[in-house]
Every structure is written in structure tokens, then in C-alpha cells.
Specification:
Helices cover 38% and strands 15% of the residues. It has a 4-stranded parallel beta sheet with strand order 2-1-3-6, with helices on both faces. By secondary structure, it is an alpha/beta fold.
Length: 208
Amino acid sequence: MTEKLGKIKDSLQDARSGRLIFLSHCLLNQNACVRGLASQPAVIRELVDLLLAHDIAFYQMPCPEVTYLGSMRWGQVKKMYGTPMFRRHCRQIAEQICDQAQTYRDNGHEVIGFVMRDGSPTCGLKCAAVSADDDQVWGGMVWHASPLQRFGRTEGVFTEELKAEVAQRGLQDLLFLSLPEVEEAGSFQDALAEIERAVTKQKQSVSA
């Protein structure tokens, strides 16, 4: 502690870029993934490097699964998370996220949108983990279960609730982008290129 008084700033200008994007939790914390799904030691480095190269700050959204079931949960499919209780949990997170998006925008920041996680039963955008067929039973003791999953063209539970909250607040100009969690959920490089095109286009439109 120096006990020095802070200098009175003669300007409100500082080093911030004023650009911000919201990221699914596991993109910045691979420890949150279901065991066996973490593809990198800590963060999705390619995405972090891309955003930093464009001076875009990132806001880490809470993980709906971890905050509901913890970090030692079993892998599940969309219909297992599609309960009224879990949807209420997701809506509460969505409300908090949209509060943050609104307050940044109200104060002159450029909020680009959200990067979700394809393949996730909660955060999937273009696809989410669903049952391989309708006859499979997802329940009982896990050591007796051997159900299969596939990646259906549907949004995850949290994505659905977040989109509903965005629409309710009239924030539909915010982009929804995604990165696949596993290769079966889509091309990582194609998704990363789509994010780069989106953030570059946004920057050009703001500059114009």
C-alpha cells in the first residue's frame, strides 16, 4: 500500500477497445467439460488468440450444467436437461447475461453477440446431443446403462432460453455463433472462420 493519492484524470478516455463478446463457459475453462470431452488443457486457444488479435474482450457465461449438477456430472442428452426446473435455471442465467449485454450497450460498448458450443445438450447452436433413437431409456443406474447419442439439428436447452430472453428484450441484432465441442458436431476450422468473418465485419461496420 503506497498511500499515494490517485491522480485526477482530465479525460474519460482509456485503453479499452469497447468491443465485447460473450462465450460459453467451457471455451475459457476446459475443466468444466464432462470427463473425456476436454480437447485442450485450459482454454480453446485458437478462439482466444483470434479475439485478442481483434482487441475483443470476452465475458465468460456461467456453465448451466456445472452450476446445476457440478463438475463430476455424467454426460446427458437434451431431453434429460429439458425439465422445467433446469429450464428455469437456464432462464435465470440468461436474464443475468442479457442484463450485462444491455448495460454494456447502454454505455457505448459494441457487444458482438454469443459464441455457443455445438454438440452440447445445453449450449448447442447448430446441433445438440440427443438420443440415438426414441426407444432408448435414459435412466436407472449408470452402470446398467449403455445408451447411444447422436447430434441432432436442434439447439441446446440453454441456447433456447437465451435466445428467448434476447428476443424478449429486442436484442436480435446480437449474433449467435458457435464452435463444435467434438468433430462429430461440425468442422472446428469452418466455425472459427465464421467467427472471424463475423467479428471483422462488425468492426468494419462500426468504423464506417
